[in-house]
Write a structure and sequence with these properties.
By secondary structure, chain A is mostly helical. Chain A contains 6 helices and no strands. Classes of the chains: A mainly alpha (71), B mainly alpha (228).
Chain lengths: 71, 228
């Protein structure tokens, strides 16, 4: 990634982004799909767009996925 | 968990009961046990609470590099998060619709509790004061090589100009706190008494506004995903 690419990527917004509330409302469903290898991003593109742009929701996703996969 | 009266919930919670129809075996088992009477229910609550504690401890440690909370306080956060998650789970058991495994649904509560509590605890020992406005650190925030800071000066100066001139006062304050000063979004949400989603929307709109200005003034090309 070039020096300014991270800035450019940060500023780029995705109109599919559903925001934190909607993403967190289905996080458990999304995580279960990911955990079993289903195409969660294909089924919930707005959630996928949000999780890649929102650091705290991305952290929650990573934490829940870890909790589920570690049992 | 506190010991409870025989026959009831360990937390004294009344749980909504759900038919286990259509659920996977494990989820149905959890619902049946949590909806049972006496020792079976208490055993299920103990098991679930133990799992929540374990998950919360792992989670606070996973996030330890990004929070000023350390040591025993971090473990306290984990235990508080597990306790509060347990109460919420039992209170909202009737909301579980079987769209995921029960444990995934339940674990979400403790993960979100950890997020919220770390955000609130941030202000006990914040590495950066609110409204510090450390613009000189912006290149580092975007991982720009120090050797190339001079090259990025123009575009970063334009970002600052747009923030100063084009954002609303609320957008500017939120953008500076989160993007310039690196304050965690959940910490700022706790400090300002706002929801995470409200702050995210502010940052989302600010990003779009700044990008449009950078494109209009020739600093960036291709509107990309912004163009519907």
């Amino acid at each position: 990634m070039s020096d300014l690419e991270r800035l450019e990527r940060f500023l780029r917004t995705d109109p599919r982004d559903v925001g934190c509330d909607e993403a967190m409302a289905v996080l458990h469903i999304y995580v279960d799909l990911v955990a079993v290898g289903e195409d969660a991003a294909g089924r919930y593109p707005g959630v996928a767009a949000h999780l890649s742009a929102c650091a705290p929701c991305g952290e929650d996703f990573a934490g829940l996925l870890l909790a589920v996969t570690n049992g | 968990m506190e010991p409870a009266a025989a026959g009831g919930s360990l937390l004294g919670m009344e749980c909504a009961r759900l038919p286990a129809k259509g659920l996977d075996e494990e989820s149905a088992g959890w619902l049946r046990r949590l909806g049972a009477d006496g020792g079976e229910r208490q055993a299920a609550e103990r098991e679930l609470h133990a799992r929540l504690v374990r998950i919360a401890v792992v989670e606070v440690r996973r996030r330890s590099a990004s929070t000023p909370v350390t040591g025993p306080e971090l473990d306290d956060v984990a235990h508080q998060a597990a306790g509060d998650a347990m109460i919420a789970i039992l209170a909202k058991l009737g909301d579980f619709r079987g769209e995921s495994r029960f444990t995934t649904w339940a674990y979400r509560f403790v993960i979100l509790e950890v997020s919220g509590k770390l955000g609130r605890h941030y202000w006990r020992n914040p590495p950066v004061a609110l409204d510090a406005g450390q613009w000189e650190r912006l290149p580092d925030r975007f991982g720009i090589d120090p050797a190339r800071h001079a090259e990025a000066t123009g575009i970063l100066a334009e970002v600052r100009r747009v923030v100063d001139d084009d954002l609303t006062a609320h957008q500017r304050r939120v953008f500076v706190a989160i993007v310039v000063d690196g304050t965690p979004l959940d910490a700022l949400a706790a400090e300002l008494g706002l929801r995470r989603n409200a702050l995210y929307k502010v940052i989302f709109d600010a990003r779009r506004k700044i990008r449009r200005a950078l494109v209009a003034n020739g600093y960036l090309e291709e509107p990309g995903l912004e163009r519907r």
